[in-house]
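>> Question from a student workshop board

For tomorrow's exercise we were told to take the sequence and the ligand below, predict the bound structure, and bring the output to class. My setup keeps failing. Could a helper post the expected result so I can at least see what it should look like? The ligand is NAI.
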Amino acid sequence: MIKVALYDAKDYDKPSFEHYGGLHDVRFMFLETKLNEDTVALAKGCDAVCVFVNDSVNKAVIDKLYEYGVKLIALRSAGYNNVDVKAAFGKIHVVHVPAYSPYAVAEHAMALLLTSVRRIHKAYNRTREFNFSLNGLTGFDLYGKTVGVIGTGKIGRIFVDICRGFGMNVIAYDRFPIADSGIKYVSLDELLAQSDIISLHCPLTDETRHMIDVAAINKMKKGVVIVNTSRGGLIDAEALLEGIKARKVGAACLDVYEEEADVFFEDRSGHIMNDDLLSLLISMPNVIVTSHQAFLTAEALNNIAETTVNNILSCFNNDGICDNELCYRCGNVEQCMKKRKERCF
Ligand code: NAI
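>> Workshop helper replied:
Here is what the output should look like for this input. Compare the format with yours to find the bug.
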């Protein structure tokens, strides 16, 4: 029996993890709290922890987990910017779920975009009150518009295909463009200057943090629509708010927000909102916020639980090699052990 403390558990997580865990003698202990220095002790006696995007797996937490004999950090997400993989190296193995449904995220990005440009969010509220006026609901055609896609990995590429289906002109920027993909790559500055819509699909790294800042917004077209289903930290939210107030940014569709950790995924409807910036963004008629739900489809939840259980089994059984292991050296041509079909350490 492998015992796993699953932090930040939600009702929608439990059935799939119980199902796949039950098939393989992996027992999940569901904890509603997030993992941090105050809650790490709850993992005592467990073989592994299973974490999500807003758990903070920093060096202090990792050192404690190591002290408790925890052998594995299993992310049930693709992004891993919340785990100090360097601090974990040599102590605790880290695995993630590289892809569970890139369609879920790409489709949500398009859902947000359509909602915004056709004012569906406003129409929905109006008709519920029998207000059938069309005033203020004028949108614009996506057909023929230029969409700039930043990051053409698994999700970005599907978003590119969806946009092409709408007859949009797609341009893209990626630090590592895919050869012979048929995607028209341009520089980041060109993308910012030419796009009517910009959609972010790259990871959050030291390099990409606040890639959409005052300077970037200044380079954009007036009326640009910005879609972010990637990570909140890609956008300097204050700069975005200023861009909206200055009428430079025409609309923003945000599934993620830099300071989302204490707010998103929770019902805060009965509380005073302490985050003024988020309150102001939400109050804008041209901003749509969903609370990090782009991944949330039945297909994705099943894939997440199945892959996580398989990751855990690979790490604890046989030779311990898991294709989905992560470390700070992964991808480094000379040092990457995974390329040699070995554990990261
Ligand atoms: P991926 O790893 O397949 O693709 C990321 C792409 O970004 C790669 O092509 C990479 O070359 C590119 N990239 C890396 N650094 C860059 C830079 N400095 N500038 C431009 N491009 C750069 O990742 P995938 O699966 O497509 O996911 C993308 C992001 O979506 C994840 O990092 C994650 O943060 C986010 N995500 C959000 C979810 C949600 O529910 N809102 C769910 C799943 C992922």
